[in-house]
Amino acid sequence: MSAQDDYDKLTKEEREARDAADRKREAEEQGALPYKWSQVLGEADVVVPVPAGTRSRDLAVALKKKSLSVGLKGKEPIMGGDLFADIKLDDSTWTLEDQKEVHIHLEKVNKQQWWPHILTHHPKIDTTKIQPENSKLSDLDGETRGMVEKMMFDNQQKQMGKPTSDEMKKMEALRKFQEAHPELDFSNAKMS
Description:
- Pfam families: CS (PF04969).
- By secondary structure, the chain is α+β, with helices and mostly antiparallel strands.
- About 30% of the residues lie in helices and about 20% in strands.
- The chain is elongated, with a radius of gyration of 26 Å.
């Protein structure tokens, strides 16, 4: 039996307790890393603390399509290894902030994928629990906004056991056809 099957059998309270325990463990694992990171679907940002007073020339930063390494010249890297997925090198950057933090901006090649971790050998987060920041519908262009609103409406309708917008259109078309042809018997008609 998979962990997901076990999870599905839990009560709401048990799920919330397990989620809280998982979040706590994740937070501890992520907090133990020598860097902090965050992401949105298309990009990830990493902040690596370095000794106060560090200058750019003291740094050894290697930003590659599939790997990342940050450290001080002549010393073991503070962090280094294979990235979870490919990045767009031309759009990825690093800067030294206040001579104490290296800020790395990673532009993901796959902009529709949450990363469970930055470096593949580090602990993962559960990407299924990510709550994306709500982008406002008003930020979307007209066509995309219409599509999203329709999907949201259809999803709500399904959850309430009501017809989706497409099913409503079919029912309305059938109703109009019936009105136009009262002589036909539709009592055994099936909608498909």
